[in-house]
Amino acid sequence: MGLTRRQALRTLAGAAALSSFGAPAILASNRRPSWKGRIKHSVCKWCYPNLSVEELAAIGAQIGLQSIELLDPQDWPIVKKYGLTCAMGNGPSRIPDGFNRRENHEWLVPQFKKRIEEAAEAGIPNVICFSGNRKGMDDEEGLENCVLGLKQILPTAEKYGVTICMELLNSKIDHPDYMCDHTAWGVQLVKRIGSERFKLLYDIYHMQIMEGDVIRTIRENIDYIAHFHTAGVPGRHEIDDSQELYYPAIMRAIADAGFQGFVAQEFIPTRPDPIESLRHAIAICDV
Fold first, then answer.
1. Which residues contact 27 (CB under 8 A, 6 or more apart)?
2. pLDDT digits (tens, 9 = 90+) for 70-124
3. Burial of 167 by CB count in 10 Å (0-12 exposed, 13-18 middle, 19+ buried)?
4. What sign does the dihedral 249-253-258-261 (CA atoms) show?
5. Both ends of the chain: CA-CA distance in Å?
6. How far is the C-alpha of 179 from the C-alpha of 137, rounded, in Å?
7. DSSP notation for 70-91
8. Where is the Xylose isomerase-like TIM barrel domain (predicted)?
9. How far apart are CA 190 and CA 168, in angstroms?
10. Phi/psi at 239 (nearest 5 deg)?
11. Which of 98, 165, 92 has the alpha carbon at shortest distance from 130?
């Protein structure tokens, strides 16, 4: 990506000066963009490896983000002091090793219970989880195993008001053999769990690769979705006219469905000014 700390400081020009990175920025509210408010805007930290959480939070507050996400508990207070939240906290599960294997439940269940309590204490609304890879397992056995494991942590999630979100990922390019790779499988899992505290993280990039038909799928399954991620297809880069998805129409479908959760930018910037790419993406999605 190539964003340096010096470039980050230049990006912050026009806001009140930072005494140093690591100190909260005092940002003039009238200098922040006035977004329409139908979409709650977030960004995934891992897409900006050259920026610390503190630096990205300062920039995010200036450009009108409401969240920096996929953070661990030690980072949650950092974004909070900039007036932001972490809309999707990291969970203890790993993409290849998730709830579809019973042997993983021994460590997943206690660690998720602890993470749910930590999220509730910090006011974090959602925690991410993964199905795991197939490794020869059929879809029905995977569903049964996920139900068995997830139902052990759902009472804790319900008690503390934290939603566990399983991410839909593509198994064609980025995550070969991943099980929760189609909306229908994920929706079936949500139905079997039967709790408002378990829903899907619908990644638009991943599901365009696996299924297409994004807008209709979102409209028909919005009740099972708690969170969205974006990125351009192909390549997982900017969501502008360089790629095949038309995000204004997708965002209108999400907003018109009455969705109240967050939409997080998860593209990998390629342009000389990655923060301008992020700002442009938010403008595209602000319908």
1. 15, 16, 58, 61, 62
2. 999 999 999 999 999 999 999 998 999 999 999 999 999 999 999 999 999 999 9
3. buried
4. negative
5. 27
6. 9
7. SB-GGGHHHHHTTT-B-SSB--
8. 79-275
9. 12
10. -100, 30
11. 98
**Is residue 62 helix, strand or coil?**
helix
Contacts of 30 (CB under 8 A, 6+ apart): none
Report the mean per-residue pLDDT for the chain.
91
Question: Is 89 within 8 Å of 111 (Cβ atoms)?
Answer: no
Q: What is the DSSP letter of 168?
A: P
Domains of the chain: 5-285 (3.20.20.150)
How far is the C-alpha of 46 from the C-alpha of 69, rounded, in Å?
A: 9
Contact (CB, 8 A) for 207 and 214:
yes
